[in-house]
């Protein structure tokens, strides 16, 4: 990968991080600027999935955007943006996964502040943009099955955020037959009936769920509005910035 390609990849990941955040007033106010950044991307990026999303995003009323986001990512358990939710139904195992993510961020010199859990997709995407394709994108590769499930979950409703997931999945290694079978099983079986509480960082817990299963309702932590990162200008490489 050339330096220019790495820069473009990081910019796409940064855009995905921003666009997958809760559409608060600051993010909505930057829609025209985001659309211009997408339009300036080289190759197929601007004319395919990202272009389709920013076209929809820019045409909606702010209240409608907020309602749609809550319906898709808060009220639907199969499209939660907390990636470890899909892999670890057991509180202790999920807590350890959260700690591992947080430690990998700190080891790379990045502090994911803002009160977000480290497995929330916009946070994972921002880390990938800042830390690069190797260690930075490792959490995305590790949770590819969760991303596939989110991408295909709300089939009964209009889901423009699918364009963001489609863009992200093209950056990851292709899905294997085992991946597809695991995603189908997750979609068909849903969460187990047993309810187990979740300590956010796994200091206690009980019960065990099969690898790749859903956590029960009580273990789900609803999304909080993400703290927006700075909007990257079209002509500059993304870089680490302090949050507002």
Automatic annotation (TrEMBL):
Q: Which UniProt keywords apply?
A: Nitrate assimilation
Keyword Kinase belongs to the record: no
Tell me yes or no: is Transferase among this UniProt entry's keywords.
no
State the SUPFAM superfamilies in the record: TorD-like (SSF89155)
Annotated region (Disordered), positions in chain: 203-244
* Gene3D superfamilies the UniProt entry points to: TorD-like (1.10.3480.10)
InterPro entries tied to this protein: DMSO/NO3_reduct_chaperone, NO3_reductase_chaperone_NarJ, TorD-like_sf
Protein name, entry field: Nitrate reductase molybdenum cofactor assembly chaperone
Gene field: narJ_2
């Amino acid at each position: 990968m050339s330096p220019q390609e790495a820069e473009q990849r990081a910019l796409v990941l940064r855009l995905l991080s921003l666009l997958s955040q809760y559409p608060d007033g600051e993010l909505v106010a930057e829609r025209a600027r985001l659309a211009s950044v997408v339009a300036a991307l080289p190759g197929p990026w601007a004319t395919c999935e990202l272009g389709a999303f920013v076209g929809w995003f820019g045409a909606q009323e702010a209240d409608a955007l907020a309602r749609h986001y809550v319906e898709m990512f808060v009220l639907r358990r199969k499209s939660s943006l907390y990636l470890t939710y899909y892999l670890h139904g057991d509180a202790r195992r999920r807590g350890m996964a959260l700690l591992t993510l947080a430690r990998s961020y700190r080891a790379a010199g990045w502090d994911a502040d803002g009160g977000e859990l480290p497995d929330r997709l916009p946070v994972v995407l921002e880390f990938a943009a800042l830390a690069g394709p190797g260690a930075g994108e490792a959490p995305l590769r590790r949770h590819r099955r969760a991303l596939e499930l989110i991408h295909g979950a709300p089939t009964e409703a209009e889901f423009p955020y699918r364009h963001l997931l489609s863009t992200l999945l093209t950056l990851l290694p292709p899905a294997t037959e085992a991946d597809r079978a695991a995603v189908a099983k997750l979609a068909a079986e849903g969460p187990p009936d047993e309810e187990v509480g979740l300590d956010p960082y796994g200091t206690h817990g009980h019960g065990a769920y099969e690898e790749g299963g859903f956590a029960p309702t009580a273990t789900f932590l609803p999304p909080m509005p993400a703290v927006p990162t700075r909007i990257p200008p079209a002509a500059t490489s993304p870089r680490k910035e302090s949050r507002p």
